Amino acid sequence: MPLARRLRLADAVSIGLGSMVGAGVFSVWGPALDVAGSGLLVALAIAAVVAYCNATASAQLAAVHPVAGGTYAYARAEIGPWWGFVAGWGFVIGKIASCAAMAMTFAAYAAPDGWTTPVAVAAVVALVAINCFGVTRTALVTRILVTVSLLGLAAVVGVGLGGAPSASPPPLPDATAYGVLQGAGLLFFAFAGYARIATMGEEVVDPARTIPRAIALALGGAVAVYTAVAVTVLLVRGADAVGSSAPLADVVVAVGWEPLAPLVRIAAATASLGALLALLTGIGRTTLAMAREHDLPGFLARVDERWQVPRRAEIVIGAVVIAIVLVADLRDAIGFSSFGVLIYYLIANAAAFRQVASARRYPRALQVIGALGCLVLVNTLPVMASLVGTGVLLVGVGYRLVLRRSRRGRSPVSG
Question: Which of 108, 218, 235, 309 is most exposed, with the fewest beta carbons within 10 Å of its own?
């Protein structure tokens, strides 16, 4: 059964913004400043350029292949099934780790001491339930969460730029080329949510027109938000923001608006929920597409007849996320997540590059820049993250090889 086309432009933009303007905007500046130093804005610009190139590739592919699954489906059509599988597997494993990180980030802001794990689990359960009762409810809830998050960020930027810190912030350390690239690698994932729009191509009204517009609008909005926040953090906190886990709360305290800090925490928690909701939605659709092609267990391919959503896939993904929340320390898992997502976008650019002239909406040079950017950024990740990511990708490849051989062994042709 196909998924219902119910999402319009505003819904798709909301889902994209909900993925991009997530927990990262409230927490990424400390780690990014630690490696990029005074080159933070350069790192942000690099991340935005790579994201734009990837976005145009996704938009061009989605216009021709308006089905669920994103780059998994696109690469299968344009390059071949194995490329599609690697992209889909990288997306699923990387974003499942991101889901767990978003749930734990929400709990860190919203839960009292000692209750972070139960609250994180409860958040996953609640959002999986929302997804199971229809995509229009997902879009509505995401729009509400995005609005609250943007209001919180607007308050931080307004107070930060309009006030004056009690003392001049200390200067940032000098930038290095490698540090700037590491910073870009961290900041890139703030923009990665536009893929969520493409993965829901089977549920978008007039996808050939809506998806490219939604991606451009959502990405442009995210770039504007991140630039404003970055400038605010640099002017108010400077080197004091290095390593901070709550740099935006620190901003409002530094300019004498300490009573506003709890509201910033609320906005951060809300942003985490928005990102988690959109991530769960996108992973469910990619899992559905892979199950339809028998690259994942077939029972995940079922679409609920009443609500027309991939309920089984949503529930299984939620269970895996909860398991990670319960047993894992996710500080190092972020690098693993980054590895999977960069592989996904690398293949997206390759698939878009292969498209024929009649399907092209953007010059091939953008796909070349996007692919090279993904390669550079993936090589700035910690060595252990790359090794673990490579290992998990190989496990997926091995599973598909065994599955294909087993299927050939049962076929009448092979006996």
Answer: 235
